[in-house]
Amino acid sequence: MIRPEEGNRGLRLEEPLIFELDTPGAVGVDLPDIPDAPDRLGGLARNGPIGLPRLSEPRVVRHYTRLSRMNYAIDSGIYPLGSCTMKHNPRLGERLARLPGLGDLHPLQPDSTAQGALDLIDACADWLRALTGMPAVAMSPAAGAHGELTGLMCIRAALEARGDARAKVLVPESAHGTNPASARACGYAVESVPADSSGRVDLAALTDRLDPTVAGVMITNPNTCGLFERDILEMAQAVHAEGGFVYCDGANFNALVGRVRPGDLGIDCMHLNLHKTFATPHGGGGPGSGPVALSADLAPFAPLPWVLRDGGGWRLAEHASAVGGSPLGRVKGFHGQFGVFVRALAYMASLGGDGLRKVAEDAVLSANYLLARLDGTMTASFPGPCMHECLFDDRFLRGTGVTTLDFAKAMIDAGVHPMTMYFPLVVHGALLVEPTESESKETLDRFAGLMLRLAERARAGDAAWFREAPVHTPRRRLDETRAARQPVLRWTP
Ligand SMILES: *Cc1c(COP(=O)(O)O)cnc(C)c1O
Question: What is the average pLDDT value for the chain, to the nearest integer?
Answer without folding.
Answer: 92
